Amino acid sequence: MEHVVVFTGAGISAESGLKTFRGEDGLWEGYRVEDVATPQAWKQNPELVQAFYNMRRKSVLAAKPNAAHLALAALENKKKVTIVTQNIDDLHERAGSTNVLHLHGLITKSQSSIDPRLTYPIVGSEITMGEHCELGSQLRPHVVWFGEPVPAMELAIRVCRQASVFLVVGTSLQVYPAAGLLNEVPMDADVYIVDPHASELQIQRPVTRIARKATTGVPHVVDQLMA
Ligand code: NAD
User: Fold this and answer.
1) Residue 15 CB less than 6 A away from ligand 1
2) Quick one: 74 and 183 in the same domain?
3) How far is the CA of 87 from the centre of ligand 1 (A)?
4) pLDDT tens, residue by residue, 58-117
5) Whether 124 and 55 share a structural domain
6) Pairing of strands 80-85, 119-121
7) Angle at Cα 46 formed by Cα 126 and Cα 154, nearest 5°?
């Protein structure tokens, strides 16, 4: 069966009300990335980092999957589909996708600050300072920060090497190592890119560029793949 691998970034969740990362101002929800999404930030000001992700988590919980997430879930009726996402929201899962690999973690979980393999569900929307993992260390968000290893990369590479169709949605392809996954896709796979700025992305292989927002562009590609 044809294996459709979908590689998503913040742009797929933009129309659900979750801001992308590289806005016009270069900030993420008003913050410099260095101040909220790095191990150094956590070391220097854990309260600020925790509060930042507590706010992001509230927005995620209030957001709903959009037509793009829903179309990808429906594609499972016809194809083998694996979603490899850079997003830390759970909108793919809530749309009904059953095979989702989160490269950068999941904001709805917490993680030990000394052993990233220890993760926990979060009751409510906040992690509080003073909440500890079973080893006694402060709990932090289960997200991969800049400069941290990406443990799911190896599996993601294996998945991308099996793709017969590769659909890229809403990513600026600037964050490595994730952005390098496109290089793992077999040369005979069909590659589609849905992004309003699709024409500006530098890609060294033939691709079909669909310069549309995710909520119209993704259902359009999914219709073609289901036909
Ligand atoms: P990015 O912000 O660097 O790029 C977003 C891309 O989405 C851009 O190419 C932009 O043109 C496109 N875009 C904007 N609106 C769109 C729409 N309506 N439909 C389709 N595309 C649209 O995002 P990235 O490449 O994913 O990298 C950012 C990093 O930040 C990721 O590692 C991710 O973990 C994190 N992040 C996650 C979320 C989330 O989970 N929702 C939100 C912000 C940032």
Assistant:
1) yes
2) yes
3) 8
4) 999 999 999 999 999 999 999 999 999 999 999 999 999 999 999 999 999 999 999 999
5) yes
6) unpaired
7) 80
